[in-house]
Amino acid sequence: MADYKWPPAEKRSLIGKSFTRVDGPVKSSGRAKYSYDINRPGMLYGKMVFSPYAHANVKSIDTKAAEKMPGVRAVLVMFEPGKEVLWAGQEIVALAAETEEQARDAARAVKVEYEVLPHLVSDVAPDKAGAEHSKAGSESKDGDPDGAMKSAEVTSEGTYGASVITHCCLEAHGQVAEWEGEKLTVWASSQNVTGIAGEFSKALNVPAANVETITQYMGGGFGSKFGADPWGPACAKLAKQAGRPVKMMLERDQELMEAGARPSIHARVKLGAKKDGTLVAWDSESWGTSGPQGGGNPPLPYVLRAANRRTKHTAVLTNIGPGRAWRAPNHPQCAVITMCALDDLAAAIPMDPLDFFIKNIELTGERSKVYHEELLGAAEMIEWKKKWHPRGAHNKGPIQRGLGLSIHTWGGGGHQSNCNCTIHPDGSVEVSLGSQDLGTGTRTIIALVAGETFGLPIPAITVNIGDSHYPPSGASGGSTTVGGVGSSTRRAATNALNELFAKVAPALNAKPEELEAVGGKVRVAADPSRAISWKEACAKLGATPITAAGQRSMDLISSGVGGAQMAEVSVDTETGVVRIEEIVAVQDCGLVLNLTTAQSQVFGALIMGVTYALFEEKLMDEQTGRCLNPDMEFYKLAGLADIGKFQVHMMTGPGYDERGLIGLGEPPVVSPGAAISNAVANAIGVRVPTIPITPAKVLAALESAPRAGRA
Amino acid sequence: MESFAYARPATRAEAIGLLGGTYEEAAILAGGTDLLSLMKNYVVAPKRLVDIKGVKEFGGITSDASGVRIGAIVPLQELAGNAELQKSFPGLTAAAAAVPSMQIRNMGTVGGDLLQRPRCWYFRNGFGLLARDAKGKPLVPGGDNRYHAILENGGPAYFVNPSGLAPVLIALGAELEIVGGKGAHKVALEKFYRAPATENEREYHLAPDEILAAILLPKGAGEWKTAIYEVREKQALDWPLAAAAVALRLEGATVREARIVLAHVAPTPWMASKAAAREVEGHPLSPESAAKAGAAAVEPAHPLSGNKYKVQLARVAVKRAILAAGRT
Amino acid sequence: MNDEHRHNPPGSPPDGQDPHETSPAGEGEAKGFSRRAFLKGAGVTVSAGVMVTEGLLGTGAASAQPAPGAIAGPGPVPITLKINGKPHSLQLEPRVTLLDALRDHLDITGAKKVCDRATCGACTVLLDGKAAYSCTVLAIEAQNYEITTIEGLAAEGELSPVSAAFVEHDAQQCGFCTPGFVVAVTAFLKQNPNPSYEQVTAGLGGNLCRCGTYMGVREAALDAAKRMAGRA
Lengths: 711, 328, 232
Hints:
Chain A is of the alpha+beta class. Chain A is built from 18 helices and 29 strands. In chain A, the strands form 7 sheets. Chain A has a 7-stranded mixed β-sheet with strand order 3-5-1-13-10-11-12, with helices on both faces. In chain A, strands 7-17-16-15-8-29 form a 6-stranded mixed β-sheet, sandwiched between helices. Chain A has a 4-stranded mixed β-sheet with strand order 18-26-27-28, with helices on both faces. By secondary structure, chain B is α+β, with helices and mostly antiparallel strands. Helices cover 28% and strands 21% of the residues of chain B. In chain B, the strands form 3 sheets. In chain B, strands 4-5-8-6-7 form a 5-stranded antiparallel β-sheet. Chain B has a 4-stranded antiparallel β-sheet with strand order 9-10-11-12. In chain B, strands 1-3-2 form a 3-stranded parallel β-sheet, with no helix packed on it. In chain B, β11 and β12 form a beta hairpin. In chain B, α11 (287-297) packs across α12 (309-327). By secondary structure, chain C is of the alpha+beta class. Chain C has 2 domains: 3-152, Beta-grasp domain (Ubiquitin-like (UB roll), Roll), CATH 3.10.20.30; 161-228, DNA polymerase, domain 1 (Orthogonal Bundle). In chain C, α6 (161-168) crosses α9. The longest helix of chain C is centred in the last third of the chain and has 18 residues, at 214-231. Chain C starts with 18 loop residues before the first helix and ends with a helix. The chains are: A alpha+beta, B alpha+beta, C alpha+beta. Chains in contact: A-B, A-C, B-C. Chains A and C meet through α1 and α16 of A and α4, α6, α7, α8 and α9 of C. β1 (5-7) of chain B pairs antiparallel with β3 (71-72) of chain C.
């Protein structure tokens, strides 16, 4: 009888090896149909009118002229007059027309009367924002921070910060909606294909059974695509009104203005240590904005926590558009605050930050041994001990190099997931889950887990995902997908296999529990010569396939990972331009299923981190309340020439594998901002207090520290 | 984008005949990367587009005794890849090659580079070329002006000229061949740009009924050693934060004459003062003299609230461009 | 036959009277061509390089091109695009971009709309073999070029050498930038058949990825160059 526990290393045929992704060919040949690519017969194009003001009372909405525009087939007012819009980009009216051009023309014919109200869109401290824009967050005190600070032999104080960024998914938010009588089909760009079906059902007051949501391929979400969003039901209503399918995707400017942002953070931090590097005290006062709604309390200090500590956080309420979960919510910001402050403290002692972190590694808690191992591994990969130098200029000429590090954590685990696995009499195998592949490789690892279970190669498995009609699975967020779908698939496949064994056992003169499926054969475990091929085994089913179900299984998954990253940068001290030379990442995530896609996740996270550290920022204009860069020209993403060299090492083997599946999406994206900032400080001898680290900020920092390495 | 009519003339005369009396009546379409983006943002809405890519007289790179003629519709990639120009005007071909997008280099034209509109985000977001709010208040001085002008920025124009080719062409003494209903005329590129005083003015002297036909490099321009230096935050597609183009006439190791043009620092490409040139003229090049020239070049700069760093960048760009020109 | 063009033309409206279409003023749907008529009549049908048109258009490739200097539009005008070797006849306003013509009117969706402002490269196609941003080319001017989209690089079910290298080196995550990158790399390698690491790094600055697949893209480009040299 097959056991659903993960097989030991020597018995794995697929797990932990490298495989190209199963949907690679269809994507790289341009044949994959994303939601944005769905074209339905008779389809109309939807566009939205949005508020140009960051804060205004909507006095009236007049759609008469728009309704009469050529090609217009449906118009929907999405905003109730008399209420206030809270950011520029908030949607007011949706309409649908025969062509995109006609829809845009009609949107411009909508007349909205606004009473403009005062706004705040600047990322300022609470004292500048004023009481009405400040919302007290958490305050905490552990140990005796004042006493510890007083007795500290070395103290360090600084202000650190990270700007608001947006998700900038390449596939805009949006969907195609189509009615067939009272049944609604929605092709949405979603991280939550199962969950949004219910949202549509509720918003449109139709039975959930009548709604099917589909996300076969999706062009990036990063935490911003969990919900149906206001434009989802609006699109369905337009389709209903017109009696025609409607495609309504956000235009790029709308996407950047309102489809999600990562909150900013700023903090004044004071730290105390002994001369030998022992960290004794942390005191921080932090603030940040995530738009009009406030936001959570950031986990400060992050990972490495002094026993004596005080924290206080204030949310600044602004009219910048709503925050949304953004790959590892709160962690990248808190890594910047904590790791940069610790790095400055190490410099003040003075001490090599690697030694400083190792000295205090116990403060990371129960997983300190892992962090220790990861730091040493990363140091070896980047040749830290050979390259590191105390802060400041070390070369002649304007180009200075520096090293920086950061560590991070994440939970992961597994979301709720159901899987149906079918073995057909012809030997083909299907697994079905209401999950989705955001580009993380979910399809591939589902096929891998089923293949491992059946002793079949990955291409032998048909994976059905991306449809709410499949068994429900959770939203892909928080690095919980692999745990959810991996364990439910393992359970379903094992259950199906045991049913198959029961049918096949007589032919092999064995009991079902004596069988195993290996290498395309079903055989007697104790006597592998007694075997029949998979196809022959399945033929014993006669005419009826086997279908078995499986659910997320907590004993196949775990949570809680760490990682260490180190960056080497070069800084042109005459121009302030920072170039990434190299970043190394060492990461654990429990049992790695597919090494290729796991490494790709980490590479991608590092690149995203380079963008966060050096380039991207949602820039707001206080005078107009508008976003200045709702485009991809000045909302700057790193390009191929901006990334440097990367090395990734996944911690696997004993001590890691037996933890089961954990998830990897978030953790590696946490550290790059901090590691790069620390590397810049090491290169130029002075801290650039906030990211992104632009040339302007580098030059300003150098100017503030005249002794620094300016040629 | 508003709707418009489209015409693709085959001859110069047809092209001129299709133009209008105002910029709103007709616009010239070449590479389209800038014009169509502006139209999608409703920043401009011409009623007719005149696609001049079919007019042979506006294309081609030719040279004769009088100098080199570069057709306005020559794609940047063709300019960058021209073997003869790579030898004689390395600074010019380098400027074309410096556009970090193969697609833009294939589509974008020499004329389009010279005539592209400012990238000022207030302009691009619908606040007009002079970037004012509904009450007429200029938005740049009190707003985010990190990419705006540090020279010639007393208002009402605060944007920077974005052309990648104009600085080096100005340093080489290039002229423009402009054709229109009233015939053809030439204008020195150095005199072509202006800082507009009103919202109705363009940032260059090209009337709505005129077409930029070609760029002319005078005979003898090839004797100049040219180089550019662009300070780029990103190496992939992005705009330089500041840049400089330099042309040097050397006699042996001695610099006889230097022309220094700064870019992305003023509403026009900015010809540095004679004083800056004098720092390197009359003696062999050295990092010290180049640095002095850089300092002199930015001496008149008056940064806005958020772009002081650009003074330093421009200073360094001048220094590095001079040294690069000396190495060619 | 695996003909990608055998599809329901997107936008085909159902039957039924529509007040907007028949309003006497024409409502800007100029020149007597309603969109509905176009879609019913001239839904793109192509086989073996022979263009079949019917209904209102009845125009061939040659006559779709306006005479030099003639003013076309602003209403819909006949446009013929030669895409992946096959002519497609359409009736479009001059303001329709090539990208929108491909995606909205021909259901050729490999080229993606992302920035829509000549910055990100997701819409990259080849015009006469050269990489271009289809978001800032008008369909009407694209008549002057042989257009190749990602779908034209290999038959359905097959992979071009560049696409194959992208799979092999996992140069894709969400995959939304990938078709544009594949087309850009294809054009780049045509110009630089044996590129160095540095040339690849500098040469693909016109495409952006958000997931962060550049490591794979760089390896794929270098590997595809080797594969193509091996085949030649």
